[in-house]
TrEMBL record:
Keywords from the named record: Methyltransferase, S-adenosyl-L-methionine, Transferase
Residue ranges of domain SET in the record: 113-319
Molecular-function annotations in GO: protein-L-histidine N-tele-methyltransferase activity; protein-lysine N-methyltransferase activity
Species name: Chrysodeixis includens
Protein name: Protein-histidine N-methyltransferase
Segments of this protein annotated with the region Disordered: 1-21
Length: 494
């Protein structure tokens, strides 16, 4: 061997050593950061936690930023063009028995991809059939090499959505994956809150979704830290495969894919979390559930929720879910949402001298542990539970004693005229006026809230969400004013 090639080899060896040293150093730094995330996200969430949650978020965000800086240079996935992968996807679906005659995948402004009708579909007619074999499910995960980890991990045993996210990551990294054509048409990133900047989180205020979003982010950061530790400490071949691909960025992608696309299907009498290809290309509109799993034919079936004409976008109904839920878990807001509601945080203060008796009445009605009540969009904004709470909250000692003497004071949880009569206009006037004041103050706080100027998809969604919440408040204020004005004149003082 010549001197030149010897020195080449030794310099290669040296650079290999350097590289190893660098990787080890990076691992060490990551382990320290991940431990900090785990500790921060495990802090007991006391009742005054809300006050601290923002400070907490700042700390967690700073750590995650350091983590992604260390992780990402090596593992940034190459940009991919979804459109370019559609043909292969369609071929794979056809070859595996999916039926979708008269339907094509197309881009729609404001929706990314969706399904387009190429022929007439009458309401109730069959649009798609998707055989179980192309579905990527928690069952597929349990039958894969991931099973060795699932059986020893308590979190995975109880959380099929996380199992599915880890399985998706493994399959994404497997060039031979049966689901490769499916995985290749998935979005590269999402508009879920896992992709929000700190400024965007802050702009959510005063929406109650602000707290839920921080909570969700903390929970995913905690999961990431938990699995990072497991993946780098347990001696399982499948975890070795995950070591290089399990980054925060990849985990939030996998979790967001699950959040925005998962479905539940009944396989052999058990509920299974699944990705259903093509079906999950349908965007949401108001309607009814028209998708089902046909056990006999072992396939998912999707029927038209209304008439669709050629060139129309084909929508499905994602279920009766408020915008807060769609925003948090699906990364969009549906302004015409007939199932929208606003969550109000209400409780009896620890300094209230009538706290005990109020709590005991709430307990009788099964409302003792309830900390949030819904205000609905539409004609009847006050739920029965909210009405019961505001009635009890506004009672005096004498009224509380009287209502406590009844076995089950069910009239309190009803807005029927006979119940309203039993409760009396005095209590209801105080109750409705209290709620009206709450709504007025809340709606003022929305007007004062700050908004960013840059119009990103995240900001568009935040703005829409807050507009929908203000609409619910305005509807409720109108309803409450009307209701108060129709109450019988005040009872004469005794
Ligand atoms: C099951 S996927 C539907 C296909 C998706 N558009 C795509 O490009 O892959 C659900 C996602 O589609 C988008 N989406 C669905 N319905 C929507 C709607 N009514 N308005 C805006 N975006 C919607 C949201 O990003 C949501 O997370």
């Amino acid at each position: 061997m010549g001197r030149k090639s010897q020195s080449k080899q030794s310099s290669k060896k040296n650079s290999g050593k350097e590289n190893n040293k660098f990787i080890q150093q990076r691992r060490k730094e990551l382990t320290i950061l991940v431990d900090k995330v785990l500790r921060l996200t495990s802090i007991f969430q006391a009742s005054n936690y809300v006050l601290k949650s923002w400070e907490h978020q700042l700390e967690i965000n700073a750590l995650i930023k350091e983590i992604t800086n260390l992780e990402c240079p090596q593992h940034k996935s190459a940009q991919h063009n979804r459109q370019a992968n559609i043909d292969k996807y369609i071929k794979w679906l056809s070859e595996n028995g999916a039926q979708f005659d008269g339907v094509e995948i197309s881009e729609f402004e404001g929706y990314e991809l969706g399904l387009k009708a190429k022929k007439d579909f009458k309401e109730g007619s069959l649009i798609l059939t998707i055989p179980a074999k192309v579905m990527l499910t928690e069952k597929s995960a349990k039958e894969s090499e991931l099973a060795t980890f699932i059986t020893v991990d308590p979190l995975l045993q109880n959380m099929p959505n996380i199992t599915l996210a880890l399985f998706l990551l493994l399959e994404k990294n497997n060039p031979e994956s049966f689901w490769k054509p499916y995985i290749d048409i998935l979005p590269e990133k999402y508009s879920t809150i896992l992709y929000f900047t700190l400024e965007e989180f802050a702009e959510l205020k005063p929406s109650p979704v602000f707290e839920s979003a921080l909570k969700l982010y903390r929970s995913i950061a905690r999961q990431y830290a938990y699995f990072y530790n497991k993946i780098h400490s347990l001696d399982l071949p499948v975890l070795k495969k995950l070591q290089d691909i399990f980054t925060f960025d990849n985990y939030r992608w996998a979790v967001s894919t699950v959040m925005t696309r998962q479905n539940n299907i009944q396989l052999a009498d058990t509920d299974v979390t699944a990705f259903i290809p093509l079906w999950d290309m349908c965007n949401h509109e108001h309607g009814k559930i028209t998708t089902d799993f046909n056990k006999e034919l072992d396939q998912g079936e999707c029927f038209a929720l209304r008439d669709f004409k050629p060139e129309d976008q084909i929508f499905i109904f994602y279920g009766a879910r408020p915008n807060a839920d769609l925003f948090l878990h699906n990364g969009f807001v549906y302004p015409q949402n007939k199932h929208d509601s606003l969550s109000l945080s209400l409780g009896v203060s620890s300094s209230d001298p009538l706290r005990e008796i109020k709590l005991s009445l709430l307990t009788k009605l099964g409302l003792a542990g309830v900390t949030h009540y819904s205000l609905y969009q539409g004609e009847l904004p006050v739920s029965a539970e909210l009405l019961a709470f505001i009635r009890i909250f506004n009672m005096n000692q004498e009224e509380l004693t009287k209502w406590s003497e009844q076995g089950l004071p069910s009239d309190l949880v009803s807005s029927e005229p006979s119940s309203a009569e039993a409760v009396g206009a005095d209590i209801d006037r105080r109750a409705y006026t209290y709620l009206l004041t709450r709504c007025v103050l809340l709606s003022i706080s929305y007007k004062k809230s700050e908004e960013g100027t840059e119009e990103t998809l995240h900001r568009k969604n935040i703005k829409l969400l807050k507009q929908c919440e203000v609409q619910i408040l305005e509807g409720a204020m109108k309803y409450l004013e009307d209701t108060i004005s129709k109450l019988p004149a005040a009872d004469k003082p005794k």
